[in-house]
Amino acid sequence: MKNQNYISWDQYFMGVAKLSALRSKDPNTQVGACIINPDRRIVAIGYNGLPMGLSDDEDFWQKNEDYSKSKYAYVVHAEANAILNATTSLKDATLYVTLFPCNECMKLLVQAGVKEIVYMSDKDKGKESHIASTTMMKKAGIKARQIQLETIVLETDK
Ligand SMILES: O=c1ccn([C@H]2C[C@H](O)[C@@H](COP(=O)(O)O)O2)c(=O)[nH]1
Ligand SMILES: [Zn+2]
């Protein structure tokens, strides 16, 4: 009889997104993204990080009223990194992401041809960027669904 304790596709791909988030150096919010094609092949992964040439050990991760001293001026979002890392076309792809995409990421996702977004956290709901992102997503015909990912316990861990 087959093993009954296997994880679902959603758990698998969101698990990869969560694992990717663990690479982020953002002290406040770590975001991970995993993009699959219609054949359920992983074609891109990413996390929020600084652009090449900027050291994580310099003080780029602070929040500061001065925009040029704030992380928001520098960080490449997880979805953007995933799109830049993509090994193939993202037409009709599905994005698994640990945080609902902001409006800047949504622009890129629409233009890349992503058709479905599966997300966990919606912590920025109500903010202007979230409203714009949702508007864009609906107009572009992208579906979205929120899932929770419980801790996965393997038989071998017991
Ligand atoms: O679509 C998104 C939105 C945000 N992020 C990243 C950018 C930042 O590194 C954090 C957000 O930091 P807060 O301190 O929670 O404002 O998340 C992203 O990767 N993708
Ligand atoms: Zn973003």
UniProtKB/TrEMBL annotation:
One GO MF term attached to the UniProt entry: zinc ion binding
Keyword Heme: no
CMP/dCMP-type deaminase domain: residues covered: 8-144
Ligand binding (Zn(2+)): 77, 102, 105
Alphabetical keyword list: Hydrolase, Metal-binding, Nucleotide biosynthesis, Zinc
Domain of life: Bacteria
Active-site residue list: 79 (proton donor)
GO cellular component: cytoplasm
InterPro entries, A to Z: APOBEC/CMP_deaminase_Zn-bd, CMP_dCMP_dom, Cytidine_deaminase-like, dCMP_deaminase, dCMP_deaminase-rel, Deoxycytidylate_deaminase_dom
Major enzyme class: hydrolase
Keyword Hydrolase: yes
Cofactor: Zn(2+)
EC number: 3.5.4.12
GO biological process, one term: pyrimidine nucleotide metabolic process
A Pfam family annotated for this UniProt entry: dCMP_cyt_deam_1
Family, as annotated: Belongs to the cytidine and deoxycytidylate deaminase family.
Protein name from the UniProt record: Deoxycytidylate deaminase
Source organism of the structure: Acholeplasma laidlawii (strain PG-8A)
